[in-house]
Amino acid sequence: MGRTFQRPERMRMFFKKYYSEIYQLGINSIGIVLLISFFIGAVICIQIKINVQSAWMPLWVSGFTTREILLLEFSSSIMCLILAGKVGSNIASELGTMRVTQQIDALEIMGVNSASYLILPKIAALVTMIPFLVTFSVSAGMVGAYATAYLGHIITPADLTAGMQHDFTQWYFWMGVIKSVFFAFIIASVSSFYGYFVKGGSIEVGKASTNAVVSSSVLILFSDIFLTQILS
To answer: What is the mean pLDDT of the chain?
Structure first.
């Protein structure tokens, strides 16, 4: 981390790689985030309406519960776990391949700080993009819930809207965004660590990719407990 966060020798090259990583790690993940969030939002709304809501509860309970689940846990924590599998394995395998093909060694021989050159843009790009992906996830989940109202006729749009608007706490949204920044740093740094220090051949690259995903997921779950306790 000390070498990674040293000031880049050439800022122009840093920003060039930074924008490239934003596209590769962030923008390329928008599709899967929207798809998963849409269907999860729809499924949550259906499950609450069919299996939880009863005549003793207000009609807006399904919309309220769907919103709270999306804001508090799914779009921040669960979505980051999914991204740890997609983005984390990408980072670890990329750096691992560069290590076993001696590209990182070549950078060191040329006097380039390889840790800062390769890892810092990835961390900066992921920390920048993950909060936007969380926002997209919340929006797509709510669109999925409305799809059950307009297409599936599980709940009326008026009741769903009433639940979405009931007792809204803006801090819950910002809490998810803040947690996602920490999770983004965990994904990028842990995956980079496993990829950067690969030893051996292509088999070890695969193992490093697997270890990066597992370790990132475990650390996200542990940090989620403490962050939720601190921010609540």
So the answer is: 87
35 pLDDT higher than 90:
yes
Minimal CA–CA distance to 182: which of 147, 111, 231? Answer: 231
- Using only the alpha carbons of the chain, give its radius of gyration: 21
Cα-flanking dihedrals φ and ψ of residue 60, to 5°?
Answer: -90, 5
Residue type, 24: Q
Residue at 202 is within a domain: yes
> What pLDDT sits at residue 26?
86
Residue 186 pLDDT class (50, 70, 90 cuts): very high
Contact 54, 154 (CB under 8 A): no
Q: How many domains does the chain have?
A: 1
d(CA 157, CA 154): 9
Angle made by CA atoms 184, 94, 194, in degrees to the nearest 5: 60
Domain that holds residue 77: 13-231
